[in-house]
Amino acid sequence: MDENTSAFSPLWLFTGFWFFIGCVLPWLLPASDNRYLFQTMLVTTSVCCYIFWLGPFLMQMNPIVGPILRNTSYFIVAEQWGIESVARS
User: pTM for the whole thing?
Assistant: First the structure.
């Protein structure tokens, strides 16, 4: 499996899941007095949950900011992890 394909697999999976909940399921509800209310609830819930999931997912795929380490922090981490290729200056 290609790296790009595996990275986008959760995107397609969850997009399909929330599409089903928000677009297909409301049409399958039985007729009742509150059918339109339930349809509105399903669509609103699916849109909000999808956006709530999509934001962090996309931020993980291409992070804008990474951790900023000072030299002292870097040397402490290297010493604790046992990295010997780091030379102190």
Answer: 0.64
